Amino acid sequence: MRAEPLPSDVIVPAAVVRQAIAWRVKLHGAPAGNPLWQACERWRSAHPHHDLAWCRLQAIGEELAGGMVGLGSARSMVAALQAPTDMRRRRLLKGAALGLGAVACGWTARELMPWSAWMADYATAVGERLDMQLADGSRLQLDTRSAVNLRFDAAERLVVLERGALCLSCAEDVLHRPLRVSSLGAVFETQQGRFVVRQEGQGSVLEVTAGQVGIRRRGEAGAYAALARAGERYLVDAAGPRQVPRADIAADGWAEGVIATQGMRLDAFLAELGRYRRGYLGCDPAVGALRLSGVYRLDDTDKLLAVLTRALPVKVVYRSPWWVRVQAVA
Amino acid sequence: MPQEVHSLYVNHHGWLQGWLRHKLGCAHQAADLAHDVFVRVLLRRELAPMREPRAYLTTVARGLLIDHWRRQDLERAWLEALAVLPEPVSPSPEERQLTVELLLQIDTMLAGLRAPVRTAFLLAQLEGACYDDIAARLGVTRRSVERYVAEALFHCYSLRHAC
Q1: Does B105 contact A112 at a Cβ distance shorter than 8 Å?
Q2: Alpha-carbon span A238 to A1, nearest angstrom
Q3: How far is CA A285 from CA A272, A274, A282, B41, in A?
Q4: Would you tell me how many other CB atoms lie within 10 Å of the CB of residue B86?
Q5: What secondary structure letter does DSSP report for B162?
């Protein structure tokens, strides 16, 4: 396996960033069927820098448009952002470090809704899940903070996972079109089966629960790079697809509204649970290695945290509804 | 609570609250902000031994005060904008808190952009307005709007990543 530098360290040439921006500007408001989208897809898959620049711009859009859905009128927010700053009070703070604001709000960024979700066909907010039937009869479920675009045409049934995780139960298609899921770095294809795709880091994880799913790297055609069967789990990233051991958490638990674990570490469990909550959910390292097994309902994560205190020697400390930490019982 | 933070709290919490009360003119807000300062200090991993703990605390507190005031400005402007909608909306406290945090975050990110660039970008990104509409509202050409949006995107990108 090649050693890949961490994407957060990669410096994309400014010229490529400007190209990516030009694509975004060009595609603003273009309907899904517009061939420009396909041209842009081709540009993105032409070089890893292209895709990275695109994804980073997308993440920036996420920070900006995050949380807009369901939060009232965008117009009022735009109006508010044109509000003048009351400078009289600022003078109370001579030599104030204006830069701190940027640092201060950095940690809230990750919990907000993405720009892709703002534009996507279907999207969920933090803690939300979605269950629906597609035009071909397939069942599509979306996990917390996820977004998809649907591109069904005569040749294929394409689901583009823009963010988060989905679970698909593929229905047999009268037109015999393959069902494809395009995600970070990979395209998954099946005619029959049920599987979960989840974006993690710069790659995608596939777990098949029924049938089988072919895997291609994005931008490649022809034979599958790998074929995943029921019960198997694959990671696909820049290094290509490879089978990985199944996790100590059921990949499709969320689709049933639960986290189902078998001997999972508490810190890993809380990291998973944190995806369904806004704000900070921390774990005291002193209790991080405790193990837990069981099936926990996701409907009410505060109740779930309270249940933990009965199963393990821990307590849950709330500094605010948004700042919660699980600690050892003193 | 780590030992350093504990002693910082014991020795300077009262003083910090007094300093904030003086700036804010409100004991409740001062107590809340002082609490936030210590939460922020706790969240910072690197806590080198401090020679000037009060200077450190006021630096953190200044940043939070600026955010606090800007948050108030944004919230007031937002509620005013909501009030003049054809069907006035009254957001729940949670919606209010979420929205104001989001507004502050966007505001911080766009600080330093020229007014038309900022407006064009906001209309495009948040309202999803098409470029022709934005051009009409700003009284500029569509080509200018595209340049404005691109400039703002590049600004945001370079804040987050080297290039």
Answers
A1: yes
A2: 10
A3: 16, 16, 9, 18
A4: 4
A5: -
User: Could you give the count of Cα atoms lying within 13 Å of A301 in the half-sphere of its Cβ?
Assistant: 22
B74 close to B97: Cβ distance less than 8 angstroms: no
Cα torsion at A105, A108, A114, A118 (round to 10°)?
A: -80
| Total count of residues recorded for chain A | 330
Record the tokens describing residue B12, joined without a space. 């300077």
ipTM over 0.90: no
Which SS3 state, helix, strand or coil, does residue A159 take?
strand
| Amino acid letter, B11 | N
DSSP 8-state secondary structure symbol assigned to residue A221: -
Question: How far is residue A298 CA from its own chain's centroid?
Answer: 17
Residue A249 is classified by DSSP as: B
Contact indicator for A71, B92 with CB cutoff of 8 Å: no
Cβ separation A108–B64 shorter than 8 A: no
Q: Which helix (H) or strand (E) holds A187?
A: strand A186-190
Q: Tell me how far apart the alpha carbons of residues A130 and A180 are, in angstroms, rounded to a whole number.
A: 19
Substitution target in B65, B98, B119 with the highest count of A β-carbons within 10 Å is B98
Per the listing, tokens 């290509």 go with A240
Chain A residues whose beta carbon lies within 8 Å of the beta carbon of residue B70: 85, 101
Would you give per-residue pLDDT tens digits along chain A (330 residues)?
Answer: 333 444 666 888 888 899 999 999 999 988 888 899 999 999 999 888 899 999 889 888 877 765 554 445 677 888 888 776 655 565 555 544 333 333 333 333 333 333 334 445 777 778 888 888 887 889 999 999 888 888 888 888 999 998 899 999 998 888 888 999 999 889 999 998 999 999 988 899 999 999 999 999 988 888 999 999 999 999 998 889 999 998 888 899 999 899 989 889 999 999 999 999 877 888 998 999 999 988 888 988 999 999 999 889 999 998 777 788 999 987
Q: Is A82 an interface residue toward B (CB < 8 Å)? A: yes
Q: Is B99 on the interface with A (CB under 8 A)?
A: yes
Place of tokens 């003086």: B22
Burial of A209 (0-12, 13-18, 19+ CB in 10 A): middle
Q: Give the whole-angstrom CA distance, residue A47 versus residue A17.
A: 12
Amino acid present at A277: R
Asked if residue A167 lies in contact with residue A198, where contact means CB atoms within 8 angstroms, the answer is no
Least CB-CB distance to B102: which of A24, A79, A112? A112
